[in-house]
């Protein structure tokens, strides 16, 4: 780029968020925190920085992740950043200086307004740039601002080896790349020398090994990459089945005793594990699948059909492989290129690893995401006008970054400078819809999401046209002007087709309609500064930076969250959006309190006291008892896709019981609804993840599968079946027991409970006074069943969670001071057993407290018993993964500690907490950095402990 850009006047910046004459930092209360990060498995301290400065409303998690990930300078040195102010200033002042240098602003005053508006938005968590900006901008490192890259490879050895090299440089910098291998000749075609070509799958092995080696050489996350192959490539079947075959290998090696967990020492022997695979399908192929026709596979050099296949059979193989191992996903080629603004330059053939950035080969995209919940007004309507103003500031900053950015290769740098692709998006959509009382899988929820997305992209292109007038359109615009304007008209037409359902979305839709009218008008006269404007990224790490409840376009992961506390330790909380939603729906304070308490105890809203069944859908989540149906995810993506320049990073989750036919339906409906890409994940379909110990059911399943294969092949094989059975732990002949008399709603009874020598409950016997012989027999049978279950290892906690809150007569007042009301005899019995045999931490998660503990809560705000200091310190060490030892304001005065409700067992993230509450495994890998369990975020995974992601952030 030239040192000085010729401009026409520059932008006049409007002050909206900041206050004239007052610096944004001066409107915030700041405090000092100590950040100590430990590995919860080993107890080893992996990071420590004391006295870091943050706004008092930033969570402990946000400050910890930003401190560990984004602060520059050696830890412990004088040059190490220690305040959020330093971090934001480093980035914002670089952007402002570049804007002045390249003529973006009409006056120095406008530059100052831009700087203060951008600072205000960042400090108040209204948006965030992607991670490379925080890593690199304003430092001595190369000023790389992009997180997403697309490469290209041709059918030559020079090009293939160059692909390995370029990918390696990108991985080294912590970013991800994708490319399409369809130009490489298939293994069914001849070389000029007369030999047979190796085919693209063989070259994938080398690239996969390179990615794995660079990852293990010190990267903070797995190498993220995408490999795409066209559906008409002759090697398509081999490509489709590649990872499924490797999954079979993983199962065999695991059952032989090898360490096949993700990151395990033996997993490196398995190939193709470092990439996401996608098949690029055409409309022609999808129609052939619908009609049951043959489909031709074409030679790469001549384009002639060299083989025909049954389209439905190939589609079934794709879906079967996805059912087995979650790969491949589908990318819909004709849809993608129909929305392409630069077809005269070249087709879109690939995407970044998370599938949201789709553009020209050898290009890159820098991302930024807005926190939607920040724009929710007090009346629970969305502030579209304020949102549009924020978009203007952010798009301006993102375009400025391209002026000074560095790139990993010369070709990527040239394409990015010439086409200036941007990727503005958002996070917290799931939380926003819940707070507004809208179900994620509802017409109202989809209408709201569509109008917000339309306004975001329309306002982005409007500002892009305004920038084109000031600093000129992108260099490739002239040759693509008609195509670009055609796509703008397609966006406008899609906006006109949105049908609003309530006042809130109607207000936003009106603003979006005006924005698109301005886009058409300004674009006609000015052109556009950017070839693309928007994508929906997974927002992993930056979602934590903004304290978002939900990532990207995702619904809420679960209603119960894991939260780190100032002063150390952690606690279980109910998503704070829920009370807001309940108030919006008209529930009274006491009803809200009861429902929130129920959710905290059960993790879902089913049978919550006073909650209307028609409101259940508002609280549906990605995981748990009321998880969203797969097509609910697809329909939400379809509602927003027409208003995005790129695509959406999102995986459609299916239960373990899902069939291949259901995956086929998801892929087919995604195409019909106009999505650009779809990925699926069936729970527990992958073995190479640390989700279980690999024994028990997994080994039995493997043995059963082997036997079935042998039978199908007509072979006689001896298959060893390892069956694991529980062992009964009988009570001694003489044991300690207690007998409790009770009255529930006037009905009298007696409970005798016996314990093992270690105090663990082992038997329960119930006797109800003045009851008929039939009921007495039923109670005896029930007692025997529970007792045998306890002796075979069923945790008492499981019985308590299942039998408390059962409602039937007799019910009402009891004579027990610890359990004053009971909804049934079963409710009373298991509450009493919990108080007698479970420790405080276990009971607190189930909401069961003694009279003494409830009184203590009234007096001190905490249920917890008073413990000696040394014991308290040991508890903190046990539970804290990230410990903020001390919280002080800027003058050093100590802040009041927040009373905490301890988390269940050894939970360290929301994913683990959900597993503890529901008893169901959450299918996610462990973090490669700190060892905690990650949770899904778009097509990737994100760690709540340290902020690491498996893809874009």
How would you characterize this protein structure?
There is one protein chain. With 953 residues, this protein is α/β, with parallel strands linked by helices. It has four domains: 1-124, no CATH class; 145-550 and 637-646, Anaerobic Ribonucleotide-triphosphate Reductase Large Chain (Alpha-Beta Barrel), CATH 3.20.70.20; 559-620 and 867-896, no CATH class; 737-863, no CATH class. The strands form seven sheets. Strands 3, 4, 5, 6, 7, 10, 11, 12, 15 and 16 form a ten-stranded mixed beta sheet that branches. Strands 1, 2, 22 and 23 form a four-stranded antiparallel beta sheet that branches. The longest helix is centred in the middle third of the chain and has 29 residues, at 443-471.
Indicate the low-confidence ranges by residue numbers. Answer: 1-6, 216-221, 688-703, 705-723, 867-901
Query: How would you classify the quaternary structure?
Result: single chain
Strand content: 5-15%
Sheet having the most strands? 10 strands, mixed
Rounded to the nearest angstrom, the radius of gyration is 30 Å
The overall pLDDT, averaged over residues, is 85
Structural category is alpha/beta
Measured as a percent range, the helix fraction is: 40-55%
What is the CATH topology assignment of the largest domain? Anaerobic Ribonucleotide-triphosphate Reductase Large Chain
Cα(first) to Cα(last) distance is 27 Å
Reported CATH architecture of the largest domain: Alpha-Beta Barrel
- Total of domains: 4
Shape: globular
Features:
alpha/beta; disulfide bond; RdRp_reductase_class-2; DNA synthesis; single chain; cobalt; Anaerobic Ribonucleotide-triphosphate Reductase Large Chain; 4 domains; nucleotide binding; 953 residues; four-stranded antiparallel β-sheet; globular
């Amino acid at each position: 780029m030239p040192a000085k850009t010729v401009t026409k006047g520059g932008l006049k910046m409007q002050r909206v968020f900041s206050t004239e004459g007052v610096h944004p930092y001066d409107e915030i209360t700041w405090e000092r925190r100590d950040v100590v990060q430990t590995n919860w498995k080993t107890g080893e301290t992996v990071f420590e920085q004391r006295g870091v400065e943050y706004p008092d409303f930033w969570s402990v998690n946000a400050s910890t992740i930003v401190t560990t990930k984004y602060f520059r300078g050696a830890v412990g040195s004088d040059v190490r950043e220690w305040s959020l102010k330093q971090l934001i200033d480093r980035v914002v002042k670089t952007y402002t200086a570049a804007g002045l240098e390249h003529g973006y602003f009409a006056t120095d005053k406008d530059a100052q307004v831009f700087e203060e508006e951008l600072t205000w938005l960042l400090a108040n968590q209204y948006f965030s740039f992607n991670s490379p900006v925080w890593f690199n901008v304003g430092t001595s490192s190369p000023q790389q601002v992009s997180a997403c890259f697309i490469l290209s490879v041709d059918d030559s050895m020079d090009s293939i080896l160059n692909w390995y090299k370029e990918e390696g440089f990108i991985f080294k910098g912590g970013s991800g790349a994708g490319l399409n291998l369809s130009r490489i000749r298939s293994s069914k075609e001849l070389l000029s020398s007369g030999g047979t070509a190796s085919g693209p799958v063989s070259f994938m092995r080398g690239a996969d090994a390179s990615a794995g080696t660079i990852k293990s050489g010190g990267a903070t996350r797995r190498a993220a990459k995408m490999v795409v192959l066209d559906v008409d490539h002759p090697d398509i079947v081999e490509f489709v089945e590649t990872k499924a075959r490797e999954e079979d290998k993983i199962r065999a090696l695991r059952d032989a005793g090898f360490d096949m967990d993700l990151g395990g020492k033996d997993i490196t022997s398995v190939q193709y594990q470092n990439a996401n695979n996608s098949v690029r399908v055409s409309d022609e192929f999808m129609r052939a699948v619908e009609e049951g026709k043959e489909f031709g596979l074409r030679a790469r050099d001549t384009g002639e059909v060299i083989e025909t296949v049954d389209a439905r059979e190939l589609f079934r193989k794709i879906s079967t492989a996805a059912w087995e191992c979650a790969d491949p996903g589908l990318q819909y080629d004709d849809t993608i290129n129909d929305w392409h603004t630069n077809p005269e330059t070249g087709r879109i053939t690939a995407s970044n690893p998370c599938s949201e950035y789709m553009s020209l080969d050898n290009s890159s995209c820098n991302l930024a995401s807005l926190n939607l919940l920040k724009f929710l007004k007090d009346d629970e309507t969305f502030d579209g006008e304020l949102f549009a103003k924020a978009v203007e500031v952010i798009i301006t900053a993102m375009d400025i970054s391209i002026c000074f950015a560095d790139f990993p290769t010369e070709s990527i740098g040239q394409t990015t400078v010439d086409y200036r692709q941007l990727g503005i998006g958002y996070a917290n959509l799931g939380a926003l819809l819940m707070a507004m009382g809208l179900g994620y899988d509802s017409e109202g929820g989809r209408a709201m999401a569509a109008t917000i997305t339309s306004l975001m992209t329309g306002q982005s292109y409007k500002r892009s046209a305004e920038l084109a007038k000031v600093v000129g359109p992108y260099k490739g615009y002239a040759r693509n002007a008609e195509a670009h304007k055609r796509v703008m008209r397609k966006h406008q037409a899609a906006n006109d087709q949105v049908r609003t359902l309530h006042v809130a979305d109607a207000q936003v839709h009106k603003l979006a309609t005006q924005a698109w009218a301005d886009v058409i008008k300004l674009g006609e006269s000015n052109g556009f500064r950017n070839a693309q404007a928007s994508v929906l990224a997974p927002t992993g790490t930056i979602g934590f930076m903004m304290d978002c409840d939900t990532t990207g376009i995702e619904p809420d992961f679960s209603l119960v969250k894991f939260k780190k506390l100032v002063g150390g330790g952690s606690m279980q909380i109910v998503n704070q959006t829920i009370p807001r939603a309940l108030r919006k729906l008209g529930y009274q304070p006491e009803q809200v309190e009861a429902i929130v308490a129920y959710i905290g105890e059960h993790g879902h809203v089913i049978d919550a006291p006073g909650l209307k069944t028609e409101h259940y859908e508002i609280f549906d989540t990605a995981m748990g008892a009321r998880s969203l149906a797969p097509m609910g995810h697809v329909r939400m993506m379809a509602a927003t896709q027409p208003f995005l320049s790129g695509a959406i990073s999102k995986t459609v989750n299916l239960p373990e019981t899902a069939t291949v036919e259901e995956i086929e339906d998801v892929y087919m409906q995604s195409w019909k609804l106009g999505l650009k890409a779809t990925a699926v994940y069936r729970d527990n379909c992958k073995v190479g993840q640390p989700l279980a110990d690999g024994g028990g059911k997994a080994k039995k399943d493997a043995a059963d599968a082997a036997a079935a294969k042998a039978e199908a092949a007509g072979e006689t094989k001896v298959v060893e079946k390892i069956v694991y059975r529980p062992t009964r732990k009988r009570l001694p002949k003489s044991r300690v027991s207690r007998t409790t008399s009770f009255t529930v709603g006037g009905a009298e009874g007696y409970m005798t409970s016996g314990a093992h020598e270690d105090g663990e409950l082992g038997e329960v016997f119930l006797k109800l006074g003045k009851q008929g012989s039939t009921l007495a027999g039923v109670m005896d049978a029930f007692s025997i069943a529970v007792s045998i279950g306890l002796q075979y290892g069923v945790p008492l906690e499981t019985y308590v969670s299942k039998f408390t809150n059962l409602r039937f007569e007799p019910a009402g007042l009891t004579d027990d001071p610890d359990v004053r009301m009971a909804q049934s005899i079963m409710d009373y019995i298991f509450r009493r057993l919990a108080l007698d045999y479970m420790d405080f931490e276990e009971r607190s998660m189930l909401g069961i407290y003694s009279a003494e503990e409830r009184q203590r809560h009234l007096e001190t705000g905490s249920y917890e018993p008073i413990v000696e200091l040394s014991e308290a310190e040991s508890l903190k060490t046990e539970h804290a993964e990230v410990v903020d030892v001390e919280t002080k304001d800027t003058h050093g005065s100590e802040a009041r500690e927040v009373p905490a409700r301890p988390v269940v067992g050894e939970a360290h993230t929301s994913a683990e907490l959900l597993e503890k509450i529901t008893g169901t495994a959450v299918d996610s890998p462990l973090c490669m950095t700190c060892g905690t369990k990650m949770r899904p975020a778009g097509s990737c995974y994100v760690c709540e402990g340290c902020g690491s992601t498996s893809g874009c952030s």
